[in-house]
Amino acid sequence: MIFSRRRARRTFFACMLACASPAIAAAGTPVETVEISARPISQFHIGHDETRFGPLEFVGGLEMTSPARDFGALSAFRFLKPGGDFIGVADTGFWFFGTITRDAGRRPLGVTNFRMQQMVDAAGRPIDRKWEVDAEGLAVKDGIATVGFERDQRVAQFKIDPDNMKAPVRQLDYQIPAEELRQNRGFETVTHANPYGQHEGGLVVVSERSLNKAGNVYAAVIEGPHKGVFTVRRDGDFDITDGAFLPDGDLLLLERSFSIARGVKMRLRRIYGESVAKGAVADGPVLMEADMSYQIDNMEGLDVWTRDDGALMVSLISDDNHSILQRNLYLEFILHQD
Fold first, then answer.
1. How many CB atoms lie within 10 A of CB 252?
2. Would you state the CATH architecture of domain 2-23+35-335?
3. CA–CA separation, 315 vs 189, rounded Å?
4. Tens of pLDDT, residues 39-89
5. How sure is the predictor about 261, in pLDDT bands with cuts at 50, 70 and 90?
6. What is the mean pLDDT of residues 194-213?
7. Please, what's the b/e burial string for 183-204 (b: 16 or more CB within 10 A of its CB; e: otherwise)?
8. Closest-CA residue to 208 (of 22, 6, 18)
9. Backbone dihedral region of 105: left (phi > 0), alpha (psi from -120 to 50 degrees) or beta?
10. Nearest 10 degrees: CA dihedral of 135, 141, 143, 147?
11. pTM of the prediction?
12. Helix residue spans in 165-309 (DSSP H)
């Protein structure tokens, strides 16, 4: 049974990762309260008790389910309060908000106060055409959410109001020539650079798999004193699904690979901060790689934050593509710097 279920999931990924386009639910109330059931995950490596995976230490995770029709397709998220309140976007054109609850050992225990709201146009009308609201990347700063969209390629900014998210207040110049962006391989990573580094907290975008002639991934610094296009070296058959800057200025990337033969894989790669520069080819080492023998799925979202005891944390979420064969996961790690 386990083998056949995994095989079915692998086959399904072939379609969903290439052309995922689940229907968007009809507009309902402006803000929908969603009941979330969360099953704690205590082992990252299935059937094994080890917690250390290279420099990453597994803290815990959650498998999230809900009877709500709109729940799922979680593409990107960022914490508004470290390890607690969060905001996110689904690639079906929804905002979501909620709070991670924790046990006495600081491990994730559940999700409360989860709400969703459909994205709207300038007139406040819900947008039902997925290709217009295929939200994939998210950055948050000073009450502003910056979202990267695929298909209708753009980077737009919104004022954060969990009770009434409105149309964007402006769109940004993303520097990369539009003809170089592949339709379903656009801006999966939108993140603010280190505020004390060379880019002074400016926005950086990285595409999923829009490649230049050398086979590297298009990216750009779109704010700050050193705006311009750069690329990230593509390593193997992995695509980039999200990223966030670490306190030391390096860029942590979440990457995903899929084949029918072996299923889905995920990887975390640390890109040297000095290589994130106009005209450069950014690169860096792999920190961790996991396949379907681990508690992973279609891993799409990442955030980096600092716990109250000073630990540097990495949180990941998965996109279930609204499929019964996939899961919505939340995973949490400590990133050790030694």
1. 22
2. 5 Propeller (2.115)
3. 15
4. 999 999 999 999 999 999 999 999 999 999 999 999 999 999 999 999 999
5. confident
6. 94
7. ebbbbbbbbbbbeebbbeebbb
8. 18
9. alpha
10. -10
11. 0.90
12. none
